[in-house]
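Subject: Sanity check before I submit

Could someone independently write out the structure tokens for this chain? I want to compare against mine line by line before I put it in a report. The sequence has 685 residues.
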Amino acid sequence: MEQETTLAAGTAGAPVAGWASGPLGAVQAADREIARQTAVRARAVAEFAASRPASVDRQPGEPGAMSAARRAARPAVLADVSEWTAQELSIALGLSRQGAGQLLERSLTLVHKLPGTVDAMESGLLHDRHLWALLERVAPVTDEQKRADLERDVLAWVAERAGKRQITTPAQLGGKLRRMGLGRDPRQDANELLAALRERGVWARPDRRPGMAALTALLTQPEAQAVVDVLGRYADALDDPEDRRTRGQKMADVLLDLVLRPGESQLPPVQAQLTVVAGVRTLAGGEEPGEIGGEPVPAEMVRALARGLGLLAPAAAGPADTGSTGEGPIPGHLLAQWEVETSPPETWPDWLRDADERWWAELEARALAGGWGGEDDPPPEVRQRLWDEEFRGTAQLRADDGGPGAAHAAVPTREDERWAATESAPCGAPAPTPAPAPAPAPAPAGLWPAAHAAVDEASLALLALDRAMNRASGAVDRARMADHEDEESWRRSPAGRIDAAGSDLAALVAATAPQRAALAELLDRSGGGTLVDRPRIAVVDELTGALLALTDARELRRRAHCGRPACTRRPETCEHDLTGRPGLGPPPPTDGYRPGAALDRYLRARDRRCRFAGCRRRVPRGGELDHNTPYPDGPTSAENLTGFCTGHHRGKHQAPGWTYDLDPTGTLTVTTPTGLVAATGPPPF
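---
Independent answer below. Compare away.
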């Protein structure tokens, strides 16, 4: 009865693996309640922050106000919150001010940017350890709609897995978010990648253990994967039965030998092996992310690696890259905008000419009709002088066409005189020093004249401010139009059409002829040179992402005709019925305990990571493919083999009370001694 009460205290949603009995069930119930209370706390902190607005603080310019540097450094989510909110929160919870500030920022981010995540924690779909992946990968997305779509999609993915009794660990959620987030906002992805490339480097920091230090290197995914793979291959080459060092210790010593004693180690040369997974859309110029060494990477990084290895031709500027249609600059594009602003008005596009006319008409009406301050406006002659100077300074391009600014453009200013003096000076001669401006006349004696002078000065400042605001508004409008046109031109480009394709076949249709030719050449390349193996084609189910076959261009050609000699020589002319031809699928079973090369390659491509629920370790190279039904009772086939890491492979055979069931689709179901059930499927492509 006590156990039933404990379970009822938890959240409504049952754990993915089901409720355990005894103390483990109490742990599950407590974990659900912690997640629910974390959501309750986030909502309460956000409600408290709303009661402490920044408007009650001293405003910029007032004595004691927050400095401009500190204000700019605050997270955007705290912009409308009083700077003293974290201090009050720290007293209430017994936290440091820094800890309270982090809690405040995290709570506001969850409530305002990730509302679906808070609901999922209350329902029991997520627990508190899932938050870090969502805060790191979803919350920073600047576009509100894209952020909401990403959050919705990843929560639907977690719910779908839960319906199949597949648990989702924080590491799995983080990996999924890295893949799902890439390509959703290509501009932000590119900016983040450029910023990260500028931060590349190597650092050393003291370790908590005496005399030890940690060496950290920030590299790109291909570089890091290649370095680790090469060090591992060097370590594996040190085949000495008397050597008691672990593989990790050997890798560390090899690194020291290669860096500190180059040429003295007598280490044989080795070749790094990187597994690169890239779809048609990735290689053809789209933003679909790829995979290097099992980790998602931006599409452009995959293409750069392929070009570096000679698999793809170097990128050439052209319509496919710039989005240009070949008909001249696109109105609104940043380059086209510069051309518009430095060209005669009669060549401007209609939208820019209309916006410019509206801006000037409004400015002229307000300046000459006294629209800045009523009776405190500057005198008419002052307004006219300011208008002449402003118009002369900003409408120089329009002075020669008889437009609205022609009458005032002839009024010279001190700036014009300086330019004239500079242009008339001999070549190489120093520019003449402009004459000093005449000193202002002394203000008349008395308080009222001084007051009127101050009012006039303030009116002029307001005039200048309003003029600057109008210019800023026009610049923002032009930037918004340019950004919109930039996006539309990209959508019309081959890369945009490839990204919009619903499948790889549709992407091939949208690709240009040179792009299709480059892909065909890539698939025709054989192994050798810098490649460990020739490129393979993964045939996958478009709906589920399940791997159906792993093949190459030669096998595709062999399967694409009836097999008759004439059709073999010219497969493009084969018009026979191919119904009886064997289709693509997993390699056939292998006679013997160890799978053949084709089956081994297929299984490692299918599973990629350890299939135990929640594990993300890679399937080691050269082993750990387990027979679900032990050999020779079970065949060495794709339906009976599963990839594990070393530790979970040992556990399958040695941990008492555990059962493992593998169905023909590749779904592995694990049942614990306490009756909990978790299932995993091969990771989709």
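---
OP: Matches mine. For the report I'm noting this point. Confidence is low (pLDDT under 50) at residues 1-12, 317-342, 372-376, 389-432.
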